[in-house]
Amino acid sequence: MKHRSPLITLAAVALAFAIMFIVNMTVSPPGSGSTGIPSPPAAPVSAVAVQTTGADSTAASDLNAGNPQVTIDGESLPAARVNGDAGR
Amino acid sequence: MASIPVPAPEAAAAEPSGTKIGPVIVALAIGSAVSIGLGVYGRLHTPTGYAVNIAGFSNGPAAKAFLATIVIALAIVQTVTAMGLYGRIPLRGSWVGVVHRWSGRLAVLISVPVAVHCLYALGFQAYDGRVITHSIFGCFLYGAFVFKMLILTRDDSPGWALPLAGGLVLSGLTALWMTAVLYFFFV
Questions:
Q1: CA of A13 to nearest chain B CA: how many angstroms apart?
Q2: Which of A44, B38, B45, B62 has the fewest Cβ atoms surrounding its Cβ within 10 A?
């Protein structure tokens, strides 16, 4: 006598495998996964920020003429000189 | 005892005459082919490094560990009910066979997302002992499962064939769990 029930189980498992593979191949974009493998980090934001001046933006304080690393408000600007400043 | 309905394969186990070894060898060959096929696919397929996330889990390894733990719990239910069906422990009633069959079906279906995640995203890896053991037993498990399902289709298999197949499935599953979930939780 042959039993069909295990073959149905086998077919169901094969179908489940097929569905899972198809779903993985068609739906999941790279980077949305969860394998535990860290995704490559996103590209760093450029260090040169673009500042837009809108109506609600605050203008930067003027520099102290005698000491250009300090604003007229007394705020220290600990920026290092860049190449273009070297000869000044 | 005759009033207790037991699955036909278990009845065959108690009836050694008229058994055939040929179908067992065929089932073993098909199961082996499945295992080898999975291994070859896992090795040749370039791991994508990603797979569909399973809702409700923080990450893939956590989901796989949780699902695999459910599977091994169901495998323990399988073992206990199988012992009842073979009269090794005092479990009586038609519910034993029903629980045995449905716990097995549920276990293998729950294991599918885990297996596909492993095969598709990670592939067959061999970069250390734990990983290659896990890869080998992952392929082995589904071959053993196919072997068992094919054995179950016949009443004329030798009495040792079905317990052997069930034991192979349980061994494979235990090895998989120990090389992945145990590692995930405790290492």
A1: 6
A2: A44
CA distance B149 to B171: 16
Task: Check: CB of residue B50 under 8 Å from CB of residue A33.
Answer: yes
Vertex B17 angle, CA B14 and B20, to 5°: 105
Query: CA nearest A7 in B: which residue?
Result: B149
Q: State the DSSP string of B83-128.
A: HHHTTSS---SHHHHHHHHHHHHHHHHHHHHHHHHIIIII-S--SS
Across the interface, whether the CB atoms of A17 and B112 are under 8 A apart is answered yes
A78 belongs to a structural domain: no
- In this prediction the pTM is 0.71
Summarize the confidence of residues B85-97 as an average pLDDT: 91
Domain ranges, residue A3: 1-29
Residue A42, min C-alpha distance to chain B (Å): 16
Interface test with A, best of B71, B111, B153 (most A CBs within 10 A): B153
Buried-state track B97-110, b at ≥16 Cβ within 10 A, e below 16 = bebbbebbbebbeb
Q: Is the pLDDT of residue B157 over 70?
A: yes
Instruction: Please state the ipTM of this predicted complex.
Output: 0.82
Task: Give the total number of structural domains in chain A.
Answer: 1
